[in-house]
Specification:
globular, alpha/beta, 8-stranded mixed beta sheet, 11 helices, acyltransferase (chains A, B), homodimer, Homoserine O-succinyltransferase (chains A, B), 391 residues
């Protein structure tokens, strides 16, 4: 438990499990008869439910985006951006964050019990697409009584969900914030994902995805997957600044123990991840990334795919991000301009690579805050929130 | 066997094994009492042994750089650059290529028999450094009667050997050609190597490096190592041009079989490599890469480390190479200029990434050929080669 909750924190938060019983037809052709979504909400929904913000998570994210769970010393994964007075101001907005279907943090997914068998779904859990997630999130909005999001916000794989929202449900969001993302993966992106999948699925402890049944975990595969992923989240410059060629022992040891600081760091990150994340979920998330390509259904013309969107857009990229480089954001920018849409774009100078989207970089937070004031201004005038009245 | 040996090929070549019995003291503190080097030579050594070129190989290379082995349909790994009339013209030069110590193609290394035990060295083979290799290559030069190389040439890890030659033996080479290389690895380079090492050493079939004794091979680890390596050898642009998001079946299959062309390609490359390369050698080669840092002994001042070199230099880099980017070659360039040395530098526009250094890119071959005419011009006037007399 933290000694003291910071004053700009939303404080203690409690996840909620929401169960859905209407069958969900999926892109793969299969159907989820019933499913659960784990969510958290921060702030207060106003009377006409017009101040709601949806936060979509990236590959290894989940519903715990902000605040503290009782007993935890670390806050949610985007606490730097979400809270009272922060860029996504919980005094003004009702923020909804969920664990996506197929995740491993309590929503229906491979590590949860399949009601049909009484055992974990494992590899029987269907592969999910970004479109499927948006569909499940739309049902969540229905359940919460939110007809139109003030904004849908996401970074990386989360940005893809935000973009798909604008395409799938043009009337159901006023603003779309796509951060450090891309309209589709490159061959290189897919290649790195495939290395991760091979590392996991060829680990003898993977047991064709049924490792739960034998109380095993493909830890080596997950560790390797995370190590590769982590390198692509950081920039070459950022790694130089952080690790350089610093040696743990100060001299060459001529053995295969970690020698340079960067080796220890990666091993530590990989090993920690391998004990906290589910291997089947990792496989599923990388496939959802690979498959995302909204332009594919519009003759590979992204502007055409975006022709019917109504949301206003903020796109943000980071100079040293080579996983989803600024060039990838500019492809979305160009398509939105071609389609005649309202779009703002910011390229933030940051040495941290793709990871920058999770960090409280001042200019980035300023941009987000400034744009969120536009989102606030677009809340219909008849609305009021309890928090605003108090403020 | 090829239907017909191309007319610009050196033709059939036969490797030679050369045994050394004088102990070799290594950087790690250990000593190799005796060792073997597998070599190939192309062209004819002139009377005063002044037309000899040493070719140093990269991570997965070996002595078979040019020409054909009887029965093979593919030539050596740098046949595009070495042969009669080619950039490194075997009508003019006597070209020497070797498999480095610790390699897995016949030189003393982990997969060769340790005379002390009668079993393969395995993990008992000492870790080698670039400096150790240069020392062994200097002894090879002695054996061949070559007091001074007309040039030492290498790409990638081979370029590091060429650079180290200029530092270790200033009097023993007139020209130094360092292609797509770096004066030291970056933290990112080391990180990718560490992923490869973890993949191999954590493969249950690795048996702590003694897989020969149990007739096993860590194929998954080697496959993963090669897949990661291969991604870093290609450029993002090059992969887009080569694979894009082309699908094998034309539609999404929602399973974990290779879906995109790039996945099949990488798996194929990885699997092929895993049956042809030795895992202990891969570990050793990546460590030699990590450890190379000639400036470290000169207060991390590369210009100082190069103060005593006498060779003239050609540096070549490739625009889309992100493993050893043009910036890394310019670090060597700047240091050589600071040290007042004779250096030419060419940055070749090529979409193929690091792999470009192995390819017959016209401008690259032209640059190499033009520089080699300088190397030829610096052969002492009293010399003559049989080939020159014939020409």
């Amino acid at each position: 438990m933290p000694q003291k909750i910071p004053t700009d924190s939303i404080g203690y938060v409690i996840p909620q499990a929401i169960d859905f019983t209407e069958p969900l037809a999926l892109a793969c052709g299969r159907t989820l008869d019933a499913y659960r979504l784990m969510i958290e909400t921060y702030g207060t929904l106003n009377d006409d439910a017009s101040n709601a913000i949806l936060i979509c998570h990236a590959l290894s994210g989940h519903h715990h985006a902000a605040g503290f769970h009782e007993g935890d010393s670390k806050p949610g994964w985007w606490d730097s951006a979400i809270g009272p007075g922060k860029a996504i101001d919980t005094n003004k907005f009702f923020v909804v964050s969920l664990n996506n279907l197929g995740g491993c943090h309590g929503s229906s997914g491979p590590n949860q019990i399949d009601p049909a068998t009484g055992k974990p779904y494992g590899p029987d859990f269907p592969l999910m697409t970004v479109t499927d997630w948006v569909e499940s999130q739309a049902r969540l909005a229905d359940r919460l009584g939110i007809q139109q999001w003030a904004a849908v916000v996401g970074g990386s794989l989360g940005g893809m969900q935000a973009l798909q929202w604008a395409i799938s449900y043009p009337e159901r969001l006023r603003h779309c914030l796509v951060i450090a993302s891309a309209a589709k993966l490159s061959a290189q992106n897919i290649a790195f994902n495939e290395v991760a999948r091979q590392a996991i699925s060829k680990d003898p402890c993977f047991h064709k995805g049924r490792y739960y049944d034998v109380d095993d975990v493909p830890r080596t595969g997950l560790m390797l997957a995370r190590m590769v992923g982590h390198i692509t989240y950081l920039s070459d410059d950022g790694m130089r600044d952080k690790f350089g060629r610093e040696m743990k022992t100060g001299k060459l040891m001529f053995d295969f123990n970690p020698q340079f600081e960067v080796e220890s760091y990666l091993q530590y990150q990989g090993e920690r991840f391998s004990t906290s994340f589910d291997a089947n979920t990792y496989l599923l998330m990388t496939k959802a990334l690979d498959y995302f390509d909204p332009a594919a259904e519009a003759q590979h013309d992204l502007a055409k795919a975006l022709a019917h969107v109504k949301a206003k857009f903020l796109l943000v990229s980071f100079t040293t991000d080579w996983r989803f480089s600024p060039e990838r954001s500019r492809e979305i920018l160009d398509a939105l301009i071609d389609a005649g849409k309202d779009v703002s774009y910011a390229e933030v100078n940051a040495p941290q690579g793709h990871d920058a989207f999770l960090l409280p970089i001042p200019r980035y937070m300023d941009i987000l805050k400034a744009y969120m004031s536009r989102v606030e201004a677009d809340i219909p005038a008849t609305s009021s929130t309890t928090a605003e009245v108090e403020a």
